[in-house]
Design goal:
This protein has about 270 residues and is mostly helical. It folds into two domains: about 200 residues, no CATH class; about 60 residues, no CATH class. The chain contains ten helices and two strands; from the N terminus they run H-H-H-H-H-H-H-E-E-H-H-H. A two-stranded antiparallel ribbon has the order 1-2. It is elongated, with a radius of gyration of 26 Å.
């Protein structure tokens, strides 16, 4: 019997289906399992063009619970496709249960890695294009953000898929266990903190109008105290306070926005903030 091989067109179609619709097929029971099964349809038809029963069996085992970051996590899907290819050729005694096992083992670690990397990239893109928009490039800014955001998602998703397909599960597990991904996450977190710090300094505006006025002098708290201690000290303290409320006190973002509006209105009316 001739070797069964997933065609290049089926690989491209499966990868595209996942990138475009990974978050479109959620269910309470399977979460992303429906989207994963949809992605596997062209793979099943490529491996078993004349065997409907084998196709149905493959799709059925693809509908188990599945949840990961859809772009970097696309590595898992590439690995699963390579394993399905081995099953179709009766290689290495691989079973459908083995695919479910490796999906379950990798979806958590790769979700953390993917969320970190994509969120850092998104923060960098926002920092660049929000500044461009506020500087007058009201059309180039939003369009540039969309191109970079969608382009990075597609690029990372495709690179991840083909990396998993070509390298297999063992190579990915070795990379995770070696600490390479941990170093990548650490670097991404550092870059994200630097970018957020720059955004905070540029866009968070907090100034006090408090003054002490006597016959001989005027003491301005903003310029003579806070700016003298550290420029942009109040925006830093305000940002850290919001972070503390969200992470330590579990205040929702919507409630925090309401609190900020109320505090800003009250403090501005009494001249505490300007």
């Amino acid at each position: 019997m001739a070797e069964r091989k997933v065609s290049k067109s089926a690989l491209r179609k499966a990868c595209t289906l996942w990138i475009e619709f990974a978050n479109a097929g959620y269910s309470w029971i399977r979460l992303m399992g429906n989207s994963y099964a949809m992605m596997m349809v062209p793979i099943a038809h490529s491996l078993y063009p004349d065997d409907k029963e084998a196709r149905n069996k493959m799709i059925a085992r693809s509908m188990d619970f599945y949840n990961t970051e859809p772009n970097i996590g696309n590595v898992i899907n590439g690995i699963a496709v390579s394993m399905e290819e081995k099953i179709a050729n009766n290689e290495e005694s691989i079973t459908g249960d083995d695919i479910v096992t490796i999906r379950t083992a990798l979806m958590g670690p790769l979700a953390g890695i993917g969320d970190t990397i994509l969120n850092v990239l998104n923060t960098i893109f926002l920092a660049i294009f929000i500044d461009m928009t506020l500087s007058g490039a009201w059309l180039v800014g939003p369009l540039g953000y969309l191109v970079c955001r969608l382009g990075s998602v597609n690029l990372l998703g495709r690179l991840s898929f083909y990396y998993g397909y070509n390298q297999g599960g063992n190579a990915v597990m070795e990379a995770i266990n070696s600490g390479k991904f941990d170093k990548l996450v650490t670097v991404a977190n550092i870059v994200g903190c630097v970018v957020m710090g720059a955004l905070m300094c540029q866009y968070v505006k907090v100034q006090t109008g408090l003054k002490i006025v006597t016959e001989n002098m005027t003491f301005n708290f903003q310029t003579q105290l806070f700016d003298a201690l550290m420029p942009r000290l109040l925006p830093l303290l305000f940002t850290l306070f919001c972070w503390w409320l969200i992470t330590k006190k579990r205040v929702s973002v919507n409630k925090l926005l309401v609190y900020i509006i109320v505090i800003a209105a009250v403090c501005a009316s009494f001249g505490i903030l300007v």
